[in-house]
Amino acid sequence: MRLLQRWRRGVVVLVLSLGLTSGCGESPTAPGSTVVYVALGASDAVGIGAQPLSEGYVNVIFRQVEGKSSRAKLENFGIAGALIDEIVALELPRAIDARPRIVTLWTGSNDVIRGATVDAFAASLDGLLSDLQSRTSATVFVADLADLTKAPMFRNAPDPDVTADRVAAFNARIESVAAARGAVLVRLSAMPIDDSIFAGDGFHPNNAGHRRIADLFWAQIEPRLAGS
Fold it and tell me: How confident is the model at residue 32 (pLDDT cuts 50, 70, 90)?
């Protein structure tokens, strides 16, 4: 836990809008339409752990979106260190204003680590997805949590808040809330985990880890984008 606290103090908490706008390739969408992709989340959405940050999973996904759409725009509202309530307060309003067609959301790891209750987390997630459902026309892709206990940081310095049971409880609620709100679940819980996918801090994904995350998101996004 001390390692995480030292890392959090060294991170710029508000890292917003790694946005890119460009277009290429043949489009399955109506001529002239723009596919707006909004990313919500914490440090992983920012790209922390990747070298350079543009190799983070959000930007990897966006490059794939560009390959399917004649016009595409990325709005990355990720905030390093964000808990779900910070995503609701600081990222969600900007996401709604962006009028997205695709939204990715990966949240919960920081809440697990900080000792949040699963009920409080689930209530905030439900409110967030409810607003996206009612106030945008986006397809929302929500990731569950990889097994944090396998990260080198927590293998080397176990944390009483970071247990397999807590991760499983959070994942169960992520799955049920996503289903209730019509979001698409991305099962990062099924992602193979080994030391080769972690950055030097033993917590964030490195380039290989970000690519693995992007691949799991894209497996759900691509058929829905191509079929629209």
Answer: low
Distance CA 75, CA 99 (A): 10
CA atoms within a 13 Å half-sphere pointing along the CA-CB vector of 191 = 29
Question: Residue for token digits 């030292």?
Answer: 6
Question: What does the pLDDT average to over 209-213?
Answer: 98
> What does the block give as tokens for 152?
């080198």
Where are the extended beta strands (E) located within the chain? 21-22, 35-41, 72-76, 102-106, 139-143, 184-186
- Taking domain 2-9+36-226, whether its CATH number is 3.30.750.24 is answered by no
Q: How many Å apart are CA 82 and CA 65, to the nearest integer?
A: 25
| Helix and strand numbers, DSSP H then E, in the chain | 10, 6
Amino acid, res. 167: V
